[in-house]
């Protein structure tokens, strides 16, 4: 009985140190892009790293965080094999229960709205569309001088990509952060709000933008 | 007879028009379901028994090929629209235009789970950095300028060049002519029908010498002092010297014949196993 208990606590200790290591790997920036590839976790935690990540995910749940897996293929496999997991990328992301106002994450509301509109539009266009079309759509509600700057920023952050032919597509960060199905579903079922929101003053916006660019 | 001919030409025209339509669909300029596949198949069926020429049959096959592409595009179209992710762009555009910023952001925030990443330095990392800095050699030591060694220019004598094996102790043309005479003597003594087996001529006591002889022999052939007779079935090569050097090989388009002179072949020749 005593022997069994020692074995159990030893196993717990091993997993404890593996969880610590996984936390460091996932939270701290290791490469240019955030997140860790499955094979890196495999190499440093061993072949039971999916179990370690499950345990870490349980720890993160009360903090409203989650371990997110983005597979190489766009379709998520139902029961992924170790090989598929090795090729996937793992991130720590918000789980999604935070209050709206706390979730802007330092973004200006019109920049975030622009991103939302752009992503929704590209999804409806089967994942890619011309930059001109996006600019045309954004200019309905955004000052012209801001459109180019914002699109470049979305591209720089990895939400969007642009090819040589001026086609804009959804890039790695959108795949990692945005639940595309839910976004479209909610957008179509949403109703226009009754209360009007005050527009941010354009001059103030320009000043802020210039400051941030500097 | 005239009626059949005009019917055939009408059929060809119709098939060409079908191909044009299919191409427009493949290029995305026409909606895929504009084309009624059943109708097209009945047209293809109607004209098929009349086709006899390869050109006509090719046209028929081309129509079927493009039709298959259109059917594939149609099936993808249906598949895409049946998924949850498909949204009519016009409907979505309308929604986006109607929605205000706050509404748009509210919807987005429900589907957005931003990633978390820390960019914080630890004490351990600072300590490692300091250790590295301490161990790092000064830049003046690491990036020492490499001074090129001084080389003096001077004339090399012919003897020095021969010593360094840049030049042979004989003029090449002299050596070539001497070699030609040797070939003629060999053919006269050991040859048969004015020619001699290639290996019997180039073969020497050492492999190096054999290679050297093969090298000079190649110039004998190139400069028209001799010719090669190759029997590909028997896999034999004979060399035949000319009585007088011929200049034609240098003017007419000649062909290169690679002959391998490997160490293995040389050993076989030494043992008398090579023809």
Outline the secondary-structure elements:
The complex is a heterodimer of chains A (214) and B (275).
Chain A: H1 2-27, E1 36-37, H2 38-45, H3 49-60, E2 65-70, H4 82-87, E3 89-94, H5 109-124, E4 128-130, H6 131-138, H7 144-157, E5 160-162, E6 167-170, H8 172-177, H9 180-189, H10 202-213
Antiparallel strand pairs in A: 1-3, 2-3, 4-6, 5-6
Chain B: H1 2-26, H2 37-47, H3 54-82, H4 89-98, H5 101-111, H6 123-135, H7 139-142, H8 158-163, H9 172-190, E1 196-197, H10 198-202, H11 207-222, E2 226-231, E3 236-241, H12 248-251, H13 263-270
Helix pairs in contact in B: 1-2, 1-3, 2-3, 9-11
Going by CATH, the homologous superfamily of the domain at 172-270 in chain B would be Structural maintenance of chromosome 1. Chain E
Q: The CATH topology of the largest domain in chain A is what?
A: Arc Repressor Mutant, subunit A
- Superfamily (CATH H level) name of the largest domain in chain A: Winged helix-like DNA-binding domain superfamily/Winged helix DNA-binding domain
- Profile the largest sheet of chain B: 3 strands, antiparallel
Lateral arrangement of strands in the main beta sheet of chain B: 1-3-2
User: DSSP strand (E) fraction of chain A?
Assistant: 5-15%
Distance between the termini of chain A: 68 Å
Query: Tell me about the biggest sheet of chain A?
Result: 3 strands, antiparallel
Helicity range of chain B: 55-70%
Overall SS class of chain B: mainly alpha
Q: Which structural class do you get from the secondary structure elements of chain A?
A: mainly alpha
| CATH architecture group name of the domain at 172-270 in chain B | Orthogonal Bundle
